[in-house]
Amino acid sequence: MSDPNEFNPNDETPPVLGSWRRIYAVVLVLHVVLIILFYLFSNAYA
Amino acid sequence: MSTIDWLVMTGTLAAIVIYGVMKTRSVNNVKSYLMGDRDLKWWTIGLSVMATQASAITFLSTPGQAYESGLGFAQFYFGLPVAMVILCVFVLPIYYRLQVYTAYEYLESRFDVRVRTMTALLFLMQRGLAAGITIYAPAIILSSILGWSLGLTIFLIGIVVIFYTVMGGTKAVSVTQKQQMIVILLGMVAAGFVVVNRLPEGVGLSDALNVAGSLGKLEVIDFKFDLNDRYNIWSAMLGGTFLFLSYFGTDQSQVQRYLSGKSLTESRLGLLFNGIFKVPMQFLVLFVGIMVFVFFLFATPPVHFNTANLEKVRNSEYATELTALEEEYNQLSSATSEASTALVEALRSNDEVQSDEAKLALADAVFNRNQIAGEVDALIKSVDVEAITEDRDYVFITFIINYLPIGLVGLLLAVIFSAAMSSTSSELNALATTTLVDIYRRSLVKEKSDEHYLKASKMLTIMWGCVALSFAAVANLFDNLIQAVNIIGSLFYGVILGVFVVAFFFKKIGSKSVLSGALIAETFVVLTFIATYLEMFELAYLWLNLIGCVLTVVLAWFFSSGSKAVKRAMGSGAS
User: Fold this and answer.
1) pTM of the full structure
2) Does B504 lie in the same domain as B562?
3) Do B355 and B252 belong to one domain?
4) Of the candidates B96, B209, B272, which has its C-beta nearest A7's C-beta?
5) Mind giving me the DSSP string for B321-349?
6) Which of B62, B95, B213, B221 sits 20 to 30 Å CA-CA off B455?
């Protein structure tokens, strides 16, 4: 049995998307999209 | 500078400081002073984290970097969002669970007080010197451009920062940083609009991008793997992630920002906010630099952007040569302007042959102009061998002073002063907190009243402020100051990160092993640096970060395994 006073980071749910895992995925996907946009931008004006 | 600009600049800065002091009047205990009542929302944390990282030199140097080398520098920050996610998953929950004031406090619960004290001392040495540079580096540029005395500029920045940081502690730092970051972003966006509007009539944003692209200035991504190239996607994703993990995870000036959050959720959201917006913000700053570059293809830039260097030559026996070179440069600038206009027209006509010819003509004109600038650099060196001829840090400030409309000049100068103050206040706050929590209260003066520690915190902030100001005041005695501080940072940063890597990811390694590993690794790093300094072999100082970290982890693991093997041998011998 776990200690009721033990700190559990998952107790704090994020305000949107339901889980932290989804929020992290959104941040990383946005970053990949940004890099792809930079790549397209570089190519467009190369 | 006009009276309106003076009013805008001083009014903006005074409003931020007064707001910060008013909002933190209730700070009357040490926890509130060091942790800001832990009531900050995610947007304040996010802006505060961004403001701490973005020093004044960022806003002076980065547009100049784009002016000279294009947008490739944006890649430097590609590892940052990854680092933010890793910190949110692994590091923040630990700091929150232990309710620590400093990152080094965690090391005592994981190892013992010796590891905590050693790491705190390494941080204090490194950050104490860096705080002086954070004031000195923009002061030397601002004093040169505004015609102020360097000492007065350093004193003004330092004294204002010390005042509000001492008054309101961590909360004052975060609250003022939120306002400072808003001013910084508004100022940069306004500068971007103005520079596009100041392009010649008939030349729009699309034309400017086509011209910049033709000269290879818009290549953001470089997929080529080259260990000697500082900015490509591989070094950014591998080395950059590593660098940002250590900076945001173990540097108290950053840790203190997100530890003052209302909850773990707010702190996580603050860091992720930084992860999402940092790269676009850096891109915006670089983009402004690119537009300034295009602007100076049509308008004539100074032959050298650091006016202090030019003045030295004007007052020397080489004055006549300089005048001749300036005349030639102005003629070549007219040719560059004509070639730029020809390229815009050729690109609009969609005639490939004509466009290629116009591109070559413009590249040739820019090359010729740069040749003359190189000859002026040589003249500057003839007058003063130790003069720094690299003038890219002066490009953006020159544009601000000479080409922005009245009012906006004041706002942009407020941007640069805000950036200087926001980074310095974080540093002073972190230095005072670490000295109080990890050294003074932990090992020197225990069990005193809250009032005593509050007073001590304020005195320590003043003390570190004076150290930073003193170092900034004598900084010109050192030949290459920024490099000197980066080297000092590289001597310690790797070992600090190594200790934290062991703490987080090698749970079976104890304090004795990590302490021995860290001390040997630090000695090795210092000896390696001395060997390179004596030219026994060549090694770029940035590698010292990696060597320090890897060596600490490997040695700690080795000592830990060794001691377990000895214990096992003794155990089997006894049985």
Assistant:
1) 0.85
2) yes
3) no
4) B96
5) HHHHHHHHHHHHHHHHHHHHHHHHHHHHH
6) B95
